[in-house]
Amino acid sequence: MDILLKQVRLNDGESLKDVGIQEGKISAIEEHISETANQVIDAAGRVLVPGFVESHIHLDKALIADRKPNKSGTLQEAIKVTAELKPTFTKEDIYERAKKTLEMIIPYGVTAIRTHSEFDPAQGFTGFETILKLKEEYKNLVDIQVVAFPQEGIFKSPGTDKMMHEAMEMGADVVGGIPYNDAPANEHIDLVFEIAKKYDKPIDLHQDFSDEANDMSIEYLCRKTISEGYQGRVAVGHLTALHALPKAQLDPLIELIAEAGISVMSLPATDLHLGARNDEYNVRRAVTPIRKLRDGGVNVSIATNNIRNAFTPYGNGDILQTAMLAIPVAHLGGADDLPTVLPMITDHPAQAIGLKNYGIAVGNKADVVLLDTFVKTNAIIDIPERLYVIKDGKVTVENKKETIIHR
Ligand SMILES: [Zn+2]
């Protein structure tokens, strides 16, 4: 064996297990493994989880909050400020910032990332090519999926249609889109499907990012997904407008989202910062209704979206911090709710982005994280040190924390 993890906790209330890793895979899970290994890690009852999945992030526009502030804090100004900055981005600049962001994220136990990488006729493929290059450079540390993302719209920004096809030819893994920032939204969705079908790729849209339930296109997206036979291959980020629907309209829509097999990625760090800016009192939370989606059988994830830019001027790359933020915001702190949050940054996003052989089971990929906590239910609220990150059966990160109290 390459690595033997002794006495890990996989589930609360169960006996501790030894986990063996060989040739990049989990080779054994037993109460006691007597076989020797090149490296033995004594977990002494600590929790082992699958590698975290950061299912929605923008590496290409991270770490630019100090260059041009979004003073109103609105989505409109965030888009405007970022569009003004984009022509100043060079390849080297994007490379350095995206690399730095990856190195913020990876030590926190993320082993897979889906990143939206944008292009438009003004900036060309400067950022997109850089992200593809980083995908290759970082493949031993993290699996990166690149989404071809038309941030400025497709019809609104002539020439982007052709670039979408070029991006797919260049190696994009997923077709992106942003119906709420383009008109007509339904035709935007039709075009995204046309491209996805041509290249046989999944779809991931920035969807219905608004405080109000006006002009939503999620229902059209659900019907289109079903009619095209794309169930299980479509994901949406934000979907904040859903929270503005009364129960009588919300319930059947959630049923439709579940039927269409559309995964929803909640992005609370951004949605809380930009949302409800016009509310002078009783300020709304402006986050998609995570619990209702979960209870309605929808595959829901939590993701970071942006780190330190006009959309989200904070964040340190720790996905556990993002999940922690969602707990009070979405009323997920109750005894029955808390255990449902960890899967929102592990199994659910893994399913949403189509990861194969994911999870702690014999034969699966050895992408795991040893947490410095002894209770799995507390895996998020403890925000524990990620003691070891193992990717493809190799230790990629070790973290040590030493606290000395002087009395
Ligand atoms: Zn996004």
From TrEMBL:
Gene3D superfamilies membership: Metal-dependent hydrolases, Urease, subunit C, domain 1
Stored CDD domains: Bact_CD
Domain of life: Bacteria
A Pfam family that the UniProt record links to this protein: Amidohydro_3
Domain Amidohydrolase: 39-397
Cross-referenced InterPro entries: Amidohydro_3 (IPR013108), Metal-dep_hydrolase_composite (IPR011059), Metal_Hydrolase (IPR032466), Metallo-hydrolase_Enzymes (IPR052349)
Name under which the protein is recorded: Amidohydrolase family protein
